[in-house]
User: Which sequence fits this backbone?
């Protein structure tokens, strides 16, 4: 999974550089080093790096396929993951499907699919648990696409925020931050989890911290108390989403571990 994610990042930089998207001080070059735009690698070296990394990722997947006999479902999961990895940057991101792809990969596919390959049985609860975390990841990519909405519109990159507009996108992010709590309450009520998972409520102060910013348009200039560069301004909504997702994700993982230990040793 780590190799697949790294491969996607490498491909994303290569494709956007080759299409001229990352040129002329585009957002991607402002918040982190770009291996091609900053001439850290040649295009040939970068492509070789990607091929090597994605080959290792596929080797891991093929090993799991050879070791287990969960076909054809497992092959479908591998194929779906490979498709979204290879085609996220183009064309999915260009036709308002990139955010949906991120949600599917980080939730049902990665967690639900991982559970299936390990156990040999598909679990909708596992997919639902993965979806809780996927909402957090999607808020970050959604926030980043809101941040660069005007630039993406000029470059004809039709991300979902470009299609539905800035205001609707901001409110959608708030919804994606709140909805996981409802899923958690449902899983506790259904006795899939013990009430220990309510530890995620400790992330509410972080939620209250970032929601007011999403209720208003992005400021024209960097606020005095907002960090600049390397994960800060000119990105605005993406870092705010990340701050909240880091808090929620940490408490969610803590709750999962605590629930597992309670069920194993105390029940």
Assistant:
């Amino acid at each position: 999974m780590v190799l697949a994610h790294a491969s996607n990042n490498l491909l994303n930089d290569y494709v956007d550089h080759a299409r001229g998207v990352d040129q002329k001080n585009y957002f991607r070059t402002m918040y982190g080093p770009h291996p091609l735009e900053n001439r850290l690698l040649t295009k040939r070296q970068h492509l070789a790096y990607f091929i090597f990394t994605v080959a290792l990722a596929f080797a891991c997947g093929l090993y799991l396929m050879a070791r287990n006999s969960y076909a054809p479902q497992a092959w479908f999961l591998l194929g779906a993951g490979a498709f979204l990895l290879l085609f996220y940057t183009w064309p999915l991101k260009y036709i308002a499907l990139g955010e949906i792809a991120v949600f599917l990969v980080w939730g049902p596919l990665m967690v639900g699919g991982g559970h299936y390959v390990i156990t040999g049985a598909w679990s909708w609860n596992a997919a639902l648990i993965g979806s809780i975390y996927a909402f957090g990841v999607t808020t970050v990519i959604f926030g980043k696409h809101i941040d660069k909405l005007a630039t993406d519109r000029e470059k004809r990159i039709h991300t979902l925020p470009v299609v539905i507009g800035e205001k609707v996108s901001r409110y959608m992010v708030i919804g994606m931050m709140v909805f996981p709590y409802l899923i958690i309450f449902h899983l506790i009520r259904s006795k899939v989890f013990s009430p220990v998972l309510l530890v995620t409520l400790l992330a509410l102060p972080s939620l209250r911290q970032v929601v007011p910013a999403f209720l208003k348009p992005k400021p024209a200039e960097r606020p005095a108390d907002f960090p600049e560069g390397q994960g800060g301004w000119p990105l605005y909504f993406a870092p705010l989403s990340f701050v909240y997702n880091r808090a929620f994700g940490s408490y969610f993982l803590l709750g999962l571990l605590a629930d597992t230990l309670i069920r194993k040793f105390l029940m």
In short: The chain has two domains: 1-67, 71-265.
